[in-house]
Amino acid sequence: MDEPLIDVKDLKIRFRGAKRDFDAVRGISFTIGREKVGIVGESGSGKSLTGRSLLKLTPKGAHISATHMRFKGTDLLAASERDMRKIRGNHISMILQDPKYSLNPLMRIGNQIVEAYRLHHKAPPAEAKAKALAMLEAVQIRDPERVFKLFPHEVSGGMGQRVMIAMMLIPEPDLIIADEPTSALDVTVRRQVLTILDELVTRRGTGLMFISHDLNLVASFCDRVLVMYAGRIMEDIPANQLHNARHPYTQSLLESLPRLDAAVDELKVPVRDPEWLDGPVYRNGVLA
Questions:
Q1: What is the DSSP string of 223-280?
Q2: Are residues 46 and 180 in the same domain?
Q3: Which domain holds residue 120?
């Protein structure tokens, strides 16, 4: 079996307060290989914070600790800021939720993609532009020459998200962290963007951490699912077995989803048990 890209054990993220500390992520362990791993859970469960911790992009007040947090054998906890600058983008890229807030509004789209390429590859401007145009075409943007010259406010949300994907993939990273990459898109554009992302990830053999709150989407798109609640991973399960989830929290999330074959007057509200905060978790249907 190949060594995982990401190997995390007992990750904790704590925020220190004036009166008490707050544990946002509480002792989670997981691995990610060259596969699509979905992380799902309610708002505030620690999904995005977990993804950002791998790039050491957490807020200044966050204190990160772990038994180990490795990327391809590199100790991320011990890595300096200089080391992390070499890893960010070049080896691990992050696609953020809304391109309106991620793209530089004062730079043309093409220049931003060229900059992302030249930051990690010593290439002349002509080669970088050719790579950027090829990447725009790879994410199925028609007339890439025209889009190359546009500013971010001149493109739609779906096209902006494709531009973000192009920018994150052009350095050819080993792992992509996608934080709610389709939440601002309508259903049709969402499916198109996911298809593009799936094709590019599969063809390049890249690992993907897909952060979402949409269980149905993750079940159909990912290979494996991590279910988070209150800073803990409640269940680690193959995506195609999600309907057979064993943890009561995962079951309650599934029961709260609307279904065409089982119409109800009122959707079920997930129940929460205080014992889950320190109780056992399930891995592949077995208590761990």
A1: SEEEEEETTEEEEEEEGGGGGG--SHHHHHHHHTS--TTS--SSPPPPP--GGGGTS-
A2: yes
A3: 93-172
Q: Do 194 and 142 touch, CB atoms closer than 8 A?
A: no
Rounded to an integer, what distance in angstroms lies between the CA atom of residue 31 and that of residue 69?
10
Residues 199-222: tens digit of each pLDDT = 878 888 899 999 998 888 899 999
pLDDT tens digit string along 121-141? 888 999 999 999 998 988 888
**CA dist., res. 51 & res. 70, Å (int):** 13
Could you report the per-residue pLDDT of 49-69, keeping only the tens digit for each? Answer: 999 999 999 998 899 999 999
Per-residue pLDDT at 184: 67
Amino acid at 136: L
Radius of gyration of the chain (CA): 20
Do 116 and 180 lie in one domain? The reply is no
Around 55, how many Cα atoms within 13 Å sit in the side-chain half-sphere? 25
Q: Is 29 a domain residue? A: no
Q: Please name which of 99, 67, 51 lies closest in space to residue 209, comparing C-alpha atoms.
A: 51
**C-alpha to C-alpha distance for 93 and 209, rounded to whole angstroms:** 10
- The predicted model scores a pTM of 0.89
